[in-house]
Amino acid sequence: MKDRAQTGRIGEDLAAEHLERQGYQIIDRNWRCSLGELDIVAFAGGLTVAVEVKTRRSARFGPPLEAITEEKLARLRLLAVEWMRAHDRRGRIRLDAIGIELKPEGRARIQHVEAMS
User: Fold this and answer.
1) For 53-99, how does the pLDDT look when each residue is reduced to its tens digit (9 = 90+)?
2) Most exposed: 69, 73, 99, 108, by fewest CB within 10 Å?
3) For position 7, what pLDDT does the model report?
4) What does the record give under GO molecular function (predicted)?
5) Cα dihedral angle (68, 82, 43, 49), rounded to 10 degrees?
6) Which residues on neighbouring strands pair with residue 78, listed in sequence order?
7) CA 54 to CA 99: how far, in whole Å?
8) Angle made by CA atoms 83, 28, 22, in degrees to the nearest 5
């Protein structure tokens, strides 16, 4: 379990760095409430963006973003609304996903999908 948690932290750090390079401002990480957790909340182009990060060390179980099911997406929508409510924010919030594949040689493949439906 410790290895999974460490893999997740590494992926979230890489995702945050990727977002910052793309001009996003990170405003929250690992925000929790009774419904679950948002990995990253960022701000870009006048829009609040909730980002789900999935990280894998191998392709044995498929690409990382395949782990985001319809059920998970529905929960992320609820979490995003709850985050907005808890922080007294108005306006729209977009749901993005970032898949991280950690390569054995120390590199990572990053896939960023904006506006998950």
Assistant:
1) 999 987 777 889 998 999 999 999 999 999 999 999 999 999 999 99
2) 69
3) 82
4) endonuclease activity; hydrolase activity; nucleic acid binding
5) 20
6) none
7) 5
8) 115
Class of domain 2-113: alpha beta
93's torsion region: left (phi>0), alpha (psi -120 to 50) or beta? Answer: beta
Burial 65-83 (b: 16+ CB within 10 A, else e): beebeeeeeeebeebbebb
51 with 100: CB under 8 angstroms? no
Domain segments of the chain as ranges: 2-113
In this structure, the dihedral spanned by the alpha carbons of residues 109, 26, 74 and 102, taken in order and rounded to 10 degrees, is 20
Residue 2 DSSP SS3? helix
Of 45, 41, 43, 15, which is closest to residue 28 (Cα–Cα)? 41
- The tokens for 73 are 């997406």
